[in-house]
Amino acid sequence: MQRIRVGFIGLGHNGLAHIAAHSRSPLSEVVAVCDYSPEKTAAAAEKFGAPRQYHDYSILERDDIDAISIHTPDHLHAEPFVLALEAGKHVFVEKPMGNSIEDLNRMVDAAKRHPRQKTMVGHILRFNPVFARVKQLVQEGALGDLFYMECDYVHNLRFQGDAPRFDPNIGMNWYLEKEIPMVGGGGHPFDLLKWFAGEPAVEVTGFSNRKAFPQMVNDDCQVCLFRFASGAIAKVAVSYGCVAPYAFLNNLIVYGTKGTVNRNTICLKAHPEAYRALRVEPPSGHPYEPEVEDFLTAIIENRPTLIDAFDGANSAAAVIRGAQAASEGKPLPIPRYER
Ligand SMILES: NC(=O)c1ccc[n+]([C@@H]2O[C@H](COP(=O)([O-])OP(=O)(O)OC[C@H]3O[C@@H](n4cnc5c(N)ncnc54)[C@H](O)[C@@H]3O)[C@@H](O)[C@H]2O)c1
After folding, report:
1. What is the pLDDT of residue 223?
2. How many Å lie between the centroid of ligand 1 and the Cα of residue 93?
3. Same domain for 273 and 173?
4. Does pLDDT of 1 surpass 80?
5. Which terminus of the chain is less hemmed in, N or C, by CB atoms within 10 Å?
6. Ligand 1 centroid vs 290 CA: distance in angstroms?
7. Is 311 part of a structural domain of the chain?
8. How many structural domains comprise the chain?
9. Which residues, including other chains, have CB under 8 Å from residue 103's CB and lie 6 or more apart?
10. Which pLDDT band holds residue 50 (cuts at 50, 70, 90)?
11. Helix, strand or coil, per DSSP, at residue 4
12. CA of 275 relative to ligand 1 center, distance in Å
């Protein structure tokens, strides 16, 4: 069986979760790890048996690496993504693909220059079997014409302000200083709703405040309304500081002319009095394995990944403009990226 030889950049919680998923896959070989921190590379190399450790982008010079997996902070995705493509690698990058339009433009330009290399953006909710079932129902026409959808990212993430989160290697706590909640968190539910709509959004408006987690530089509560060309409307609410239990299935509701999905239940026109179970179980944690497998098999079979750079850029651009619309208090058009 062919194994894709993979190098990893960024060894925080998320990078390590990905290496663990790769190390369990028969399609992957963990070749090298890269982080500014020598302690982190040493620990990962020992735990996962990675033969090589790097502390800068010279990891990209290795000929025995087929693919690079990028897990740096949100505002530090663009440079390794572009350099990895220029070095001839396939590239997986965590969501959000970037957290500025300028970064997305650079990344999309690089993807256009290297069309034979696979790109993938880590919108992991698409691999949750409940959300995948909703997508299937939409594609089969079971819900009819979608007209309104809601999906949220509401968590208590105030621990991200704790002192140990300060990263001396980048000179900041990036969660407080650089993360944009509608982009980092809201990008998850928005990407799902865009996937269901089957098209990028064209316009966004919103409101925001910073009452619950005032240590954040950007507003921690951001609520946006997106409009699609079809006329469908989507609402995404984000809070990083709320007092609440886990929002089951991101509070998903999808309204179509023939039916409504509410979390993992469905109500169809034939039985408008009741919601019935979708009979699909949500996973207990993040479904890293199927996400990693999609990236690896796309390379092996030379087929598109589920979320390539253009798709990922359209998701990120909408939420970046959403956060901007909320802070400026006016609706904004959303740029669109074409393959
Ligand atoms: N898909 C998901 O569900 C999910 C979940 C968590 C985090 N994420 C995303 O994963 C990314 C990483 O998040 P995290 O919580 O692991 O962050 P983190 O701050 O814990 O880890 C980032 C690591 O990257 C390293 N780093 C930064 N710049 C580097 C560079 N240029 N070269 C080498 N190393 C560098 C830092 O030293 C640090 O170890 C973020 O984009 C985040 O939004 C996605």
Report:
1. 98
2. 10
3. yes
4. no
5. N
6. 20
7. no
8. 2
9. 75, 77, 78, 97
10. confident
11. strand
12. 40
Residue type, 163: A
pLDDT in tens, 236-293: 999 999 998 889 999 999 999 999 999 999 999 888 889 999 999 888 889 999 999 9
What is the atom index within ligand 1 of the atom nearest the CA of 40? 39
**Residues for the chain: how many in total?**
339
Full residue range of the structural domain in which residue 87 is found: 4-125+289-304
Residue reference for tokens 């969501």: 95
**Which residues fall within 8 angstroms of residue 151, CB to CB, at 6 or more apart?**
189, 190, 192, 193, 234, 235, 236, 250, 251, 252, 253
Encoding tokens for residue 287? 């479904």
**Closest residue by CA, ligand 1 atom 36:** 10
3-class SS at 194? Answer: helix
As for ligand 1, residues whose beta carbon falls within 6 Å of it are 9-15, 34-37, 40, 71-74, 76, 94-95, 122, 124, 167, 169-170, 184, 286
Residue 104 sits in a domain whose CATH number is: 3.40.50.720
- CA-proximal residue: ligand 1, atom 21 (nearest): 12
